[in-house]
Amino acid sequence: MNVTQDAAGHGLDAGLVQQLYNHYCHLSYLSALAAVLLVGHALRRHRRLSRFRGPPLAAVSDVPHRLAMLGGECHLFYARANNKYGPIARVAPNILTTSSPAVWAHVNNTPGYKRSDWYYNAEADGARVLWS
């Protein structure tokens, strides 16, 4: 067994040191790959709706929208976004809001348009709700 001494005089097995080095090299490669994938995913999400203006952070993160949801103030968040950025505003990487009845009617009358599951499963006071 090849044993080396560290500065404190402790014996270290050279094979163990090499295994630890290899292990941490693999971890650093995996971490770098994960970072590249996360950045790529964020850029892809940003590009999909990039032609729509909105709060800068909303282009890459759901955080502002989620905070508004948790605070029960989505309606105010949407109104501020539409007042500042126009009748169609991006409020999250994959979420747009509109203040225009004409845009809303056009989107909802498009063949093949499927609403989110929450739309079809909404309930209030135990009764199903029909959104119109």
UniProtKB/TrEMBL annotation:
Keywords assigned: Membrane, Transmembrane, Transmembrane helix
Transmembrane segments: 26-43
One Gene Ontology molecular-function label: monooxygenase activity
InterPro entries to which the protein is assigned, alphabetical: Cyt_P450_sf
Identification of the protein by name: Uncharacterized protein
Taxonomic source organism: Akanthomyces muscarius (Entomopathogenic fungus)
